[in-house]
Fold:
Amino acid sequence: MKKIAAGAAFLLFAVLFLVLIQPKQTCGRDMLFVTITENNSVAAFDLEGNLLKETAVGVKPRGIVARPDSNEIYVANSGSSDVSVIDSCNLEEKARIKAGKFPADVAFSPDGKVAYVTNRDSHYVSVIDTLNRTENKKIEVGSEPLRIAFQDGLLYVSNYVSVSVIDTGNNSETARIHIGKALQDIEPAGDLVYVGNRHAQAVTAINASSKAIEFTIENITNKGNTVDSLTYLPSEKALLVADFTSGLLQKMDKKGDLQGRIYIDRHPVAIGADLKKGLAYIVSYGEYDLDPKKRENGMITIINFTSMEIARTFGAGKYSAGDIEFVEG
Structure:
């Protein structure tokens, strides 16, 4: 009886292991995942612009990130204080994980075993075990943490006026760098970490070693415009910077010298990239209005980031779009 019980226990463990630790499978197609904030959903598109499916998630989804070495997409639902887990192959929501107030963005450890979620209105970062899908720890950071990125064992968090640096070895804040008001996207680039300053229409570069401000790229946009999203392109050693108000997308080297510029239709809010194909994917709000019900016709623009030429544009849904993630098939 003991041998039978032991065998049954082992079989149960093996089944649970296969269910929970799912290796990444090939879905057979490249896809773009876009959070449709006002519709409480995530839309999946192929690269020709065909809508594959719109998946219901939590309330007001914001940041969306693919979990490494898996077929899972994590979505920060700012209005329902949780994180949705979507299967990127069958496009179904498979779980929802409780977080703090106003989850805004997600980052992962390189092995995908840990997810880190910024909670803007709770002023901390959630540490989530992706195996059991529970919040294991809360890391206090600056006020109103928004975006988050991982590099070399460290997390960089853009708070409202500062950047927090978190050591993932002990899950504690080790530095806080004051920058200025209304910080937005944050992007590590090796020796430098870039953060967009919305009010100053600037990008600040932080030295990754000293954790001090290295320089500031000023006058990126016209007065009154806003720097919202950044993406670093390692193959180009260049940065893409999008201005929400004017639609201007600029490519600059790591020192901030301009290499190219192009205007994106409507209001770009997030940038994804396929480094192998040399393509960037920019998602834009539709015609902006203070009334969310009037924000219609979001747009996805695909550009060749080497030549800075538009390759394709297509609609991103009836309601306003928030964030974008490219997933290779």
Summary: The radius of gyration is 20 Å. Helices lie at 2-20. The longest helix spans residues 2-20. The chain has one helix and 28 strands.
